[in-house]
Write the C-alpha cells for this entry.
Amino acid sequence: MTADYEPPCTLTAALVTQVARIAERAGARAVLASTRDLRLRRSQRVRTVQSSLAIEGNTLDEEQITAILEGKRVVGPPREILEAKNALDAYERMEDWDPSSIDDLLRAHGVLMAGLVADAGAFRSKGVGVVSGERVIHMAPPAIRVHDAVSDLVSWLAETEAHPLLASSLFHYELEFIHPFSDGNGRMGRLWQTLILTRWNPLFTDVPVESQVRERQPQYYAALNASNERGDAEPFVSFMLSAIEDALDTDQVRDQVTDQVAALLEALQRGPAGTLELLDHLGLSHRPNFRANYLRPALDGGWIERTQPDAPRSPTQKYRLTPRGKRWLAGVRGL
C-alpha cells in the first residue's frame, strides 16, 4: 500500500459550502429513515435500481422492475432482466458489506454481475479504455496495477477524515478512474457511494441519488471527463454533491414548505431583501413572529441564505434565495 495515497481533489469554498448545507439538512432528517413507510422504501429502491441500470442502457422501466422484485413474470430482454435481479439483490445486501473492505467490494461485484460476465467478483485481467465515438477518452491503469490501486483506495477510505459526502464522491470517482472490473464499473461506483452514505446516515437508504444522476447523464460523464483531463476530482465531486442535494428535494423526501416560508420565498423572488423590506412586503409588524415562523425555518431548510454569512447580525444584512429555493418556486409555477 502507498502510505501517502490521497485522491486528487481541490477542496474549494464552494465544495465546503455544499457539504455543510447537505450535512445540516440530512442530519435534521435522520429520523426519517427509521419511520419511512415500507412501500415507499421499496419504491425508492426500485427507482434507484432502474436509474442506475438505465445509465448503462437497460430499457426496463420501474413497473417492470417492481414486478421482478415481486417475483412476477416479466417480458423483456433476458440479460436486462438478469441485470435488474442482480442489482435488486446487491442493494438489498448493502448492510452486510463494509465499504472499506476490498473483499466485500469483490463480493458485491460478484452479486451485481453474476451470470453477466465470466469474471464476476474478480478484478479485470486485461487493459481497458473508455471510448467516446471513435476517440479513447480514458485509458485505465494496467491490469497488473489494479489490485494495489484498489487496495490504496479502500485503505484511504478507512482512514480518511474527509466528510463522508466528500469521501463517497471521491471514492466513486477514483473507482471509475481505476476501472477495476471488465464490466459493471459504473454500477459499482454508484452502489459503493450509496453504501458509504448510508453508513454515515441511514436516511440515504431512501434517497434515490442514482435517479438524479440518470436525469443528468451527459453532465455525469462530462464531470468524469473534466476530472480526468485536469487530474483533479473537483468537477466530479461538485457534480455528485449537486445530485445528492437535489435527490433530497424529491417529492418523497422533501421537507414541507409552510405557508409562511412559501410567502417569504415569493417575497424574495424579486431579489435580496433586508428584514424591514420583508416585513413591509409580508404585511408584518411583529419581528419575533417573523424570525420564528418565516426567517428561521427558511434558513434551516436551506431555502434562503444570508448575503453576509460571516456577519449574521450586520445592520445591512439581506437574504436571498438559494438554488433550492429557486427550484421550489420554479416547481410551484410549473416551470
Notes: The radius of gyration is 22 Å. Residues 31-36, 251-255 have pLDDT under 50 and may be disordered.
